[in-house]
Amino acid sequence: AGFHLRDALDLVSKHAPSTIDKFGGHAMAAGLSLRAEALDAFASAFERVGRDWLSSAQLERVVETDGPLEDAYFTTDFIELLDSQVWGQGFAPPVFCDEFQVLNQRVLKEKHLKLLLEKDGRKYDAIWFGHAESLPTHAKVAFRLDANEYNGVTRVQLLVEHAM
Known about the structure:
Layout: H1 5-15, E1 22-25, E2 30-33, H2 39-53, H3 56-59, H4 76-83, E3 96-108, E4 112-119, E5 122-128, E6 138-150, E7 153-163
Parallel strand pairs: 5-7
Antiparallel strand pairs: 1-2, 3-4, 3-6, 4-5, 6-7
């Protein structure tokens, strides 16, 4: 069982009625309107609901992957095939996982990690959006495949979901 966003907002509105002006949504997505001065009170009330509803096991990050990807599939043709499929809630696009040597890494715009990874003598560009902490020289990486076009050239890029 997950965290039902609309029900959580409903509970916040009952326990702290002055925090939310209006809200709506469903289990997986919700929206609300609140005044800026109510933000701290809302955040506290929402966190309280989360602590009451969720166990520590539910808060642990679990990274589910489809395992390693054979070298032959690191192609733009395979990426096009994946992109042509229908993915959605309950049927997420594949996330692969493998061990890589980290050859180079740098932070872009103070919040994204740009990487050059190597596996079996092949090099791969990768990016981890919203993550700026460096990786060790060898890392286990969970990633999705992406086609990155730059200056008219399309190359395979790994979109990092998680690494350790």
